[in-house]
Fold this sequence. Notes:
Blueprint: H1 3-19, E1 33-35, H2 43-56, E2 60-64, H3 69-81, H4 86-93, H5 96-107, H6 111-123, E3 141-146, H7 153-165, E4 168-172, E5 176-181
Parallel strand pairs: 1-2
Antiparallel strand pairs: 2-3, 3-5, 4-5
Amino acid sequence: MTLAVRVGIVVAVGFLVGAGAVKGLRMIENKRWRTRKGVRLAPASENWLDAMTKATGVDVEVTSGVRSPLGQAHAMRSKIKGGASEQDLLDLYGDDRQVMELYPLLIADDLPAAAEVIERHMSEGRYLSRHIARPSDPDSWALDIDLDPGPSGSELLEIIAYAKSTGVRPVNEGNHLHLEKR
């Protein structure tokens, strides 16, 4: 392969990456965001993502959206495997009674039992996370945006400012930005 052909390929690939084609971003109808495989989003959160990416021009990857109770148990177990303590979960979720009931089940890897506890609390009107779908409140949602790699520092500040201006609560959780609408 000649040098001119190699340069042409590098330029073409660079153009495609810049346009989002290689990255797989949703570019249809000006959508500049994508979800990881298996991530489901509430329609209201998709609308917010469309508006946010249009307003900021920032491309994002969504790593988490709507979860089932079992999905929430998996997410919490993943935090524990990543080093989170019971106190960390208490600080993050705030529902002391539910977290204290879940923690031993999560440590024991009994995710089906943990999901049953989450479902029971949901039936009593206590939702541990905005990620868990609320049929009675379709405008309540949460999603996580990947930060590793992800938006640059200035882009992250733009997303946070946009979120706050639209009543969406941003929480930097280290490797992702958690966004929730109450």
